[in-house]
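During the reporting period the student researcher (J.K.) took over the structure-prediction task from the postdoctoral fellow and processed the backlog of single-chain submissions. One of the processed entries is reproduced below for the supervisory committee.
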Amino acid sequence: MHDAVSPLAAWESFYVIIGSSAAALTGLQFVVMALIADSDRQRSMREVDAFGTPTIVHFCVTLIISGVLSAPWPGLRGPRLTLLLCGLFGVVYVLRVLGRARNVTGYQPVFEDWMFHVILPGLTYAILVVAAIVLMGRTTLALFLVGLSSLGLNRLFDSGSLVYGAGPALHLPLFDAGRLQANLDARRADVDASIEAYNGALQRALREVADELTGLRAIERQQVAQRDATAAANAAYDLAVQRYRAGLGNFLVVLAAQTNVLTQRLADTDLKARHLASEVALVRALGGGFDAGAELPQHTAAVR
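J.K. obtained the following structure tokens:
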């Protein structure tokens, strides 16, 4: 009894490896999608449809091809039909991806996006169609073409094309940690500069408040002394007037006493003005404002 050896048997180990890789990368792609859903960075569904979903589809096609060519087919007609359907489906799907990528609004695709999401997948599926057509006549060449197509679809997410296989919709901190670290360092430097500026402003404010309080207390002490001087000048003026009326003094003494009273009152008024100005400066140093038309507070009126 003669048992014919299927030409697919020699490729069994190859497709076991390719299929396992495709299954693992498909699971990894879903993990990436879950990370995107939990991230703060917003992405539209158009970007996911154009760059994220096709990657999973390519992995699934690779997994299907690996399963089909690893099955114990009695002949090549079944694999040939399956490969032809997968290739035609892939070509049509790449055209659909092209339309989705052209309608993306939140991201401007660059040449690498078109290369890894449209040109290379389309070429790979076209090779798969050709391999399916020539499978019956040139089996060895066709199987190598199928292997090349499977390997090509499975390598869209390798380390060399990680960003393009995942697409802009899968732009995660995992893939640009260096840039994010630089941005974090810059933000920390900005925070440090802001803290330094705040500390400087706080120190200036405290110094201004201390200066205004010291000046205010000095003016208040001068006002106490000035009130005593004004009271003494008024008493001397009253005494000079009484002596003049009693005929014990002349009018020049009265005029001199009156001049002294006016001088002391002028000094008292000047101190009151300086006290008000110092209060306004203190309010401003504390972060408040001053309205010249507003009613004066009660403690200011009491000082007067």
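The committee noted the following: Confidence is low (pLDDT under 50) at residues 157-175, 299-304.
J.K. will present the remaining backlog at the next meeting.
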